[in-house]
Design goal:
By secondary structure, the protein is α/β, with parallel strands linked by helices. The chain contains 6 helices and 15 strands. Helices cover about 20% and strands about 25% of the residues. Bound molecules: fe (ii) ion (FE2).
Length: about 260
């Protein structure tokens, strides 16, 4: 099984640029989509882990929908802090896995690896939240199939990064969620976005990992050293390969059209 991940798309309304009028996030998403459409072997599905749009408007979701129509793989959406839960739900009403009301949580059951999507959106906040209700929902889902390989995907990281500005806006309630996750030994990964960088850390008996954005990256400013901000970088995607007997093998790929050359042995 091959799971593709795109995150932090930050799509603006058609014709508008993001990042202070500097970045065409739609063009970057299109580059990532073309890369995934051509990827061999063909991914089973794509997880889009939040910050799908930039300002939360219906016009941005309309543009996102138009851009995603180019993707020839099944795509599953969850919200980030930039998203708007009801505008997302309305724009993608035909995405049958999305609940008709409440949090945009769901499970994907028909694959070798079970996938659990979590909605950490906390309206008006940059950080995310796993409140008691959301954590109870996760616990109930995990209890249903405690032996099946499972991946949790969500926007906000449960882990620290050392990037002070991002650690201030990670997932509140991570300790509460961690107390649940720690009770299960079948969780292969907790996948997230939000950081616009690659990170991975051991967390509550599993691995918590972020994939970089299709939008520009966050500067690697550890412990407040260097500017806290963004810088232009190529779009990125994640590829998570499930192998029986091995587990989940995670890759990050830079999306470019650079020519590949064979090694000369
Ligand atoms: Fe983001």
């Amino acid at each position: 099984m091959l799971i593709a991940q795109i995150t932090d798309l930050h799509i603006r309304a058609k014709g508008a640029l993001a990042y202070s009028g500097r970045i065409d996030t739609g063009a970057r998403l299109t580059q990532a989509i073309d890369y995934l459409n051509a990827f061999e072997p063909r991914p089973d599905l794509v997880l889009a882990t939040g910050d799908l749009i930039d300002l939360g408007t219906a016009a941005e979701y309309a543009h996102l929908r138009e851009l995603l129509s180019r993707l020839t793989l099944p795509c599953y959406l969850i919200p980030g802090n930039h998203d708007h839960r009801e505008h997302l739900r309305a724009a993608f009403a035909d995405h049958a896995y999305l609940p008709r009301q409440g949090f945009l949580h769901y499970t994907i059951e028909d694959r070798p690896v079970r996938l659990i999507g979590l909605d950490t959106h906390d309206p008006g906040k940059v950080g995310g939240l796993m409140c008691e209700a959301r954590t109870a929902w996760l616990d109930a889902r995990l209890a249903e199939q405690p032996k099946r390989p499972t991946v949790i995907f969500m926007h906000h990281p449960v882990h620290e990064t050392g990037i002070v500005g991002m650690d201030r806006v990670r997932c509140e309630g991570a300790e509460r969620m961690g107390a649940v996750v720690r009770r299960y030994d079948n969780i292969e990964r907790v996948l997230c976005g939000h950081l616009h960088r690659t990170t991975q850390v051991r967390w509550c008996g599993t691995i918590s990992a972020s994939v970089p954005a299709t939008a520009p990256e966050v500067v690697l400013a550890i412990d407040g050293m260097g500017p806290f901000g963004w810088r232009d970088s190529p779009p990125h995607i994640g590829i998570h390969l499930w192998r029986d007997g091995v587990g989940l093998i995670s890759h990050v790929a830079t999306v470019t059209d650079a020519t590949p050359y064979p090694f000369a042995y």
